[in-house]
Records
---
Amino acid sequence: MSSKRGAVAPFLIMEALSEANRFAQQSDKRVLHMSLGQPGSSAPKHVLDVVTDRLQTAPLGYTEAGGMLALRQRVAQHYRDEYGIDVPYERIFITIGSSAAFLMSLLCAFDKEDEIAIALPCYPAYPNIMQSVNITPVFLRGSPEHKFQPTVAALEALPHTPKGLIVASPSNPAGTIMDDGELKVLAQYCDAKHIRIIADEIYHGITYGKRANTILAHTDQAIVVNSFSKYFLLPGWRIGWAVVPPQMTRAFTSLASSMFISPSAVGQYAALAAFDCKGDLDAVVAEYAANRKIVLDGLTAMGITRVAPVEGAFFVYANVSHLTDDSVAFCRKMLYETGVVTVSGMDFDREQGHHYVRFSFSGSTTDVTEAMERLKGWLA
Ligand SMILES: Cc1ncc(COP(=O)(O)O)c(C=O)c1O
């Protein structure tokens, strides 16, 4: 028996992936993944060249707990270049993906039994990690009108004020972006009510027309988690970062050194080099944009039109309630009959996810095109 804290719900996507792997072994159909939560492209060549060099020449020991100075300073530069704001590097901590940044943020800023609000549908690791450290997720029912994002009205409707709020923009699974005005209103409201925001900005850089602003433009009291796993194409290198409020830097440093000693040195060299690859990284975003159009056009042609506006990330979160009341069974049938792997909305929303499917378009344009052709034939 595991502890109560350890008894978190498994990701359904993992089960779907194992099933897809078993199916791939038996079937002569090539399995096409519209399930991936990571870029289909690998690290830019320049990153690999730099890392190859560092493997020969750098000591690759532990680094400072908060990360290499050069990388923290480079992230500070990124805030100046991308958002026109000054964030002192002392508030920036390099972490083992944004996943570790999130865990450390919970530990630094919240106590046992605190409540943190989060809009549904959401990235499932968040409530799971909260549960594992005895923090209570309080779910806000996201609605298509508000692009499944949290609102002041939804917070006001809670029986009592939560201690924290998760903001994810662009979000996973919905891919929606909070307008800067809405972000500002939310930040000001939360500061006034002493609600600590954790803003997940991991999909920044992957947007289609509309820009996602950082919450740090409106408050220095939010914690931001971000990562090199998405726009920067380095998911397996396990490097992310957190920006913490000025009064939290000491606690963050102590926790980081006790829990992890330091993030991977080689991963940090890769991350530093990735900042010099904007051309390659933006070319991948252009491919996502082409894929996005293929998927949205394809779904429309199939009569699947109730989709959240895909403003960022690489997902379409589609309402399929006219086709099924059980999206887990629907996705499984789709796999066996077409070889296309998708994710049921149940991973992101246990209450209403049975009516939703998440389609990822982070794969190659060739695969995305073929997957949509197969689905068109299937649904016809
Ligand atoms: C919304 C969101 N946040 C955080 C993560 C964690 O990513 P990482 O730990 O690789 O930075 C993911 C991964 O898929 C995600 O989709």
Note: The chain has two domains: 12-43+279-379, 45-277.
---
Amino acid sequence: MTSSAEPTGASFKFRLAHLSDPHVGPLPAPRLRDLAGKRMTGYWNWRSGRRLIHDMEMLSRILADIEAEAPDHIALTGDLVNIGLPAEFPLALKAVTRLGDAERVSIIPGNHDAYVRNSMPAMVRHFAPYMRGDDLSEVAFPYMRIRGRIALIGVSSAIPTGFFLASGAVGPSQTTRLRGMLEAAGQAGFVRVVMIHHPPLKAEHFGRGLRDHASFERALREAGAELVIHGHNHRQSVTMLERRNGPPTPIVGVASASAVPGTQGHRAAWHLFDIAIDENTLRIDMTTRGSAPDGAIVELETRTILDLVAPG
Ligand SMILES: [Fe+2]
Ligand SMILES: [Fe+2]
């Protein structure tokens, strides 16, 4: 079988879809003992507003739009659920299986998937095949998957936090392994795409960002990556991370895939990355498709985020 995910000669094209933060609902009726601690405030938050922000009808339209564009691969960067109840994950899995199997879909967790201590084990039970490296039988972060000439690297920044906090952390051992993966994949000539839930740069708001962003950013700067994609902020953002010994790395955040209210940058959207490799060039074009004010899914913007010519 030939697909555009297989290299032909010197040129290679790959279409990568990115969506994030679907916050799949509705919440199953929780048992009282499930609502101890942080889940109590989370449940109240969901009842009092979050369920109106994240609309499953909108998510369904976004998923249909992704299907229609037939990408080679789909990355989902976390916050699949709301308060990390084990009973939430089967509902999220239903939405994900609509996109494809674990060969075609790569997932990493977000802070809402790791809401309290028993949340992540429940996510792993349902999503393990989507969060594993090639040929690995266990879930371990970071993981690496090779698809054609693309190396997809999944990092977990999801940790349980205290009340009213939504911060994340990668940790020193994951950062060290990430650096090794980036260096090896870079030397082998792969286009490196890093997936992480939290924006890997200094946060604008206290309690919401990546605690160890400085060491993570250093690993990115020194080892290099061609693209970093993230969610968490529920709005679109594009930042170029400048590097001293190599081309800059685009860091791209996407809006929530189910958000209905808000301005253009906040409303439900997804990104389609057209990655084109030729003999000595690499180009990444990004198309944003998302909700128009009337709720229809339309193309909102296309721009080139990386256009490189190899030296020599
Ligand atoms: Fe989120
Ligand atoms: Fe988040």
Note: The pocket of fe (ii) ion (ligand 1) is lined by residues 21, 23, 79, 110, 112, 232, 234 (CB under 6 Å).
